[in-house]
Amino acid sequence: MQRFFLTLLLFLVSFASxxxxxxxxxxxxxxxxxxxxxxxxxIAGVCWGAPTEFKFCTEIxxxxxxxxxxxxxxxxxxxxxxxxxxxxxxxxxEVHGLNVPIRQAGxxxxxxxxxxxxxxxxxxxNLRSGIAPPDSGHPAFNKHADDIDYQxxxxxxxxxxxxxPWIAVEMGNKFGxxxxxxxxxxxxxxxxxxxxEAFFETDIxxxxxxxxxxxxxxxxxxxxxxxxxxxxxxxxxxxxxxWNKIEEKYQKNRDYRQLSCDPGKFNIDAKINxxxxxxxxxYGKSDLDKTIVISTRCGQDSDCNPSNAGGVLFTTLGFSxxxxxxxxxxxxxxxxxxxxxxxxxxxxxxxxxxxxAVRYSGGKIVKRDGKEFFQIPQTPLKTVKRGLRRSETVAVxxxxxxxxxxxxxxxxxxxxxxxxxxxxIKAKNYGLNEAVKKLxxxxxxxxxxxxxxxxxxxxxxxxxxxxxxxKAKGEPCILTQSVSLPAGKQSTLKLNVxxxxxxxxxxxxxxxxxxxxxxxxxKQIIGGWQDxxxxxxxxxxxxxxxxxxxxPTDWACEAGYWSSAVVESK
Length: 570
Prior knowledge:
Layout: H1 2-22, E1 23-27, H2 28-49, H3 81-96, H4 102-110, H5 118-128, H6 149-153, H7 155-159, H8 165-174, H9 183-198, H10 204-212, H11 220-234, H12 239-251, H13 270-284, H14 288-297, H15 304-317, H16 343-360, E2 364-368, E3 371-377, E4 381-386, E5 390-395, H17 419-422, H18 432-439, E6 444-446, E7 455-460, E8 463-468, E9 477-484, E10 491-499, E11 508-515, E12 518-526, E13 530-535, E14 543-551, E15 560-569
Antiparallel strand pairs: 1-3, 2-3, 4-5, 6-9, 7-8, 8-15, 9-14, 10-13, 10-15, 11-12, 11-14
Helix pairs in contact: 2-15, 3-4, 3-16, 4-5, 8-9, 9-10, 9-15, 11-12, 11-13, 12-13, 13-14, 13-15, 14-15
């Protein structure tokens, strides 16, 4: 009998050992708590660093220029593109499922209504012009393919994939390919891989090592990761020494900026900004404030980088262990701009997608003692057909993509959306003059600057409109029209205008209306759509030159949005 129980015990120990090697387990409650913490880390990082974004390039932000955190800052999140763009991808999966085809992902991204820059803008422009993914992110069509864009947005891919780095890799191959290529995609897969590991690991170097396994080891991005860790090990108590080495290699050496969209001080390449994520994580030594502050003070894209760093670190702790100052003032009812999600809805959709990811990978969701647990295989399981009548589930060894640098890409596939798919792309590319002609007939636009991508907007806070931007500081963009006003009638100029980031109400511009050079109105425009009426009765019976000025104020997102501009006479 003793021999029997000993044999049984050895079997159970052996079975437990094999199980432990094959599966990781996390309670649904702990997953949700950590995922929620990850979102707060993202939000805190971007809100804390936002005032410094690209104000310090090739220099460390002085300590006295670093903003001080206050709990109220958390509500600056709702208009941040660092957050709402990735929520577009979550919405696509919510509607179409975790395995949504890449072309559907492209259609949804093409129909997004927010302003974009760099790889995101180029990718979406390609999609709107009929270039289907993955060509929308290919360097043949997208000169920003190595930029930071998917790295900024990839947090979602790990937050829905606890312990499943292959999901983060698949997400990069799908959503990252909409706008990036090569290191631009690997950057996001690395970030997603770190998040996936952060649900089970607190050691930052082990988390970084897990992310590194998700990308080609011979890529320049992987080289940057190894460099940054090595330079940290050489001097773990002085982050500025590591920053200087990053500057020498990844800023000044053009071999590491071969597809850089700007060869000067401004550097939005994924590699150097990814290095600043790591500097924050390594030298922050798991301190929440230090991690965000150091990542921010590295400069360049100094709100995106601390957002990634903060998100990964906060995931290791979970929401329940965070200091209240990071969440106590969060408005949980307000929706993130251009999305369907307030904070609770965001958490719920990630929870549902994580459950899909567990099942998709061959894992299980089991109940024990009244609680749910995610049982996650350490390698994904796939069902494969064996003969005509039977199939079986096998473990699939996954591996990173083959290294394809953006400056030596494979040939594009030259794929385009079908006519049926094109019908679902409601947002189209219009030239600026065409947009004015379409929505503001009889008006002529002059002195419009290129910032913020002026032009047609299919849906800006519920309306089609034209977006304009001043040419330079102190130099307005101007709409003009000569109009004959009938004698004996009351004529009124009626405008419907808005400012950038209407829901947040933090950016403004000045509307000036002139008639034959005489100023009739000067008004600050801030927030959402507003109707404005200007009396023209003094000019009855005359032909008058009207001018509408999009006048800049403090040169921060000075875009003017025009839904209509008409003269009515009664």
